Amino acid sequence: MANDSKTWRCGKYELSFDRPRIMGVLNVTPDSFSDGGEHFDPDAAIEYGLAMLDAGADIIDVGGESTRPGFTPVNPDEEARRVLPVVRALAKEGAIVSIDTRHVAVAKAAVRCGASIVNDVTGFTDPKMVEFVKTSTCGVIVMHAGEVAAPTRTHATVQLDTSAAAFVAEKAREAAAEAAREAEKPARRRRGKLLGEPKPEAKLPGGVVQPSLPFGDPEPATEPASERETPAAEQAAAAETVAPAPEATEAASEPNDRLAAMMRRSARREEAYVPTSQLRRFTLPDSAPIMRRVMGFLSDQARALIHAGVSRDRICIDPGPGFGKTANEDIVIQRETAKMASLGYPLMCAVSRKRFVGAVSGVTEAAERDAATFGVCLGAIQAGANIVRVHDAAGFAQFLNGYWAVAKPQPRRAFVAVGSNLGHRCDNIRAARDMIAEIPLTCVSNSSKIYESEPAYETRQDAFANAVIEIKTELAPLVLLDELMKIEAELGRDRSKKAKANGPRTIDLDLLWMDGETHGGKKLRLPHPLIGERDFVLVPLEDLMHDPARFFRYNGVEVKEPEDRVGHIVGELGRM
User: Fold this and answer.
1) What interhelical angle do 327-335 and 370-383 show, nearest 10?
2) 566, β-bridge pairs
3) In this structure, what DSSP letter does residue 75 have?
4) What is the torsion angle, in degrees rounded to the nearest 10, for the CA atoms of residue 310, residue 314, residue 315 and residue 320?
């Protein structure tokens, strides 16, 4: 997977998978299974989202409704109130934001606020959600939520009687039963259909059939009182009977109820102990029927989206661990990651802190399962998973950087801008170049000439010496940035609060661009957000590449005309 050729288009962003991408989980909810309430306040959620970006997350997945087993459905208006301020703030900082929702109204509002991905737990089985995403450019995540095996049926013990009289009696009973069935068949038709005929499946534009929700068989009409009266069931029933706001009536409909019911059944399946007189012969169930159902749904839904008008390179798939699946079934699915990756879509591994991770690791508390989560994610990455969705983004970024540095040699091209206007300017720049060459897993491959430029932004200071250094590095962008900051400190750069942001400095190092990397946050933005307006960067870049303005425009950067830029070049100071 080191050089995976898949790409994922998400609005104005394009994610490549030359390395796995980290999606940080941000639950703006009071009741999520492992971090409920920690980030329910919007300001706390925004701060935590930015911290995950600065720690190495590539995407932030914002959700306002818990879908844990036994969850209480949330009105779309309330869900939107929770998530929209967070989505807007993170998108403003250049983050790739995913909205985790099954409500069309919430998805629409989040995309308007800057979200680039719609993560639908119901797998785009709602035609209204399909109609929306086909008119946008956002990325989509198709998730499978549903039981993957038929419910276990109990069988009474049968005592065979081989006598002739028993044979004749059995034949008579069969004939009587057949006659009774024929008599009970409905003779009338209602609106051209036999009574009891199943409701036709919804059709998308172009005649594409939209399958029903993958939530298994409906709940039985009657349940034991102990099950009907569980607190979770009472809460769900109460939420379903409350009349939603007029705008949310369409969104809070049948799919929501069926998802909640499926997740309640899933919890009972996991907790129930069914006595049996037969011992299993194998440690895990047969993978074939499980994978037929999961992969069949994912590939069918992806094709339905494509037929509806969503381009293939916008689609990501997720087998939905924990949603209607037992621990054994989840392990089977994870072991078949390579098969799911072979479908050709970017593949999500979203196992973070799930029940089956606790089952295989022996860790009861969900919040303590991060180490085991990393192990499962590593297995998925080795088998072809492209994106890992984790709660502990900082920890997993460290884990992945360590593994990737040893297991996947991957030098990438990057550009670093160097500037100085204190002391011996050219000597400072040359010293910085030599120190960059000493960074681990990094080499200097080329350097521009050194130019003199007018000061930018803070004009009442001496002229600057500027250059751009081309490097090759195997470090992650944030790790490389930390190394550059160490060089600044060693050469005397003052980054304290008392120093002017754009004032005089002995050395200034900016990471401008790295091959295949897009990043947002307070600590690092890639490509550098000001690269298109800086003459003292674009002119030195002409020594290293043909037409840098065209190159960066192609990469989505707005590049100004020379007369509209800041920090104009006024002369040459020599070679590096």
Assistant:
1) 40
2) 534
3) -
4) -120
Peptide bond just before 527 cis, omega within 30 deg: yes
Check: CB of residue 2 under 8 Å from CB of residue 18.
yes
Task: Name residue 22's beta-bridge partners.
Answer: 388
CA 144 to chain centre: 14
Residue 36: HSE in the Cβ half-sphere, 13 Å Cα cutoff: 11
Average pLDDT of the segment spanning 141-154: 75
Q: What is the mean pLDDT of residues 240-252?
A: 41
User: Using an 8 Å Cβ cutoff, are 527 and 534 in contact?
Assistant: no
Per-residue model confidence as pLDDT tens digits over 353-397: 999 999 999 999 999 999 999 999 999 999 999 999 999 999 999
pTM: 0.80
Residue 119 sits at the vertex; the CA angle it makes with 93 and 24, to the nearest 5 degrees, is 50
Residue 259 phi/psi, 5-degree rounding, is: -65, -45
* Angle subtended by helix axes 42-55 and 393-407, to nearest 10: 10
Task: Decide if 83 contacts 61 (C-beta within 8 A).
Answer: no
Please name which of 505, 504, 506 lies closest in space to residue 460, comparing C-alpha atoms: 504
Give the tokens for residue 288.
């074939």
CA separation for the pair 103, 320 (Å, rounded): 18
Helix, coil or strand: residue 264: helix
Q: What are phi and psi of 389, to 5 degrees?
A: -105, 110
Q: Dig out the tokens for 512 from the structure.
A: 């401008």
Written as six digits, the tokens of 292 are 């037929």
Using the structure block, give the residue that is written with the tokens 């949603």. 323
State how far the Cα of 178 lies from the Cα of 249, in Å rounded to an integer.
Answer: 46
Cα separation, 47 vs 95, whole angstroms: 13
Q: Which of 266, 232, 281, 230 is nearest to 356 (CA)?
A: 266
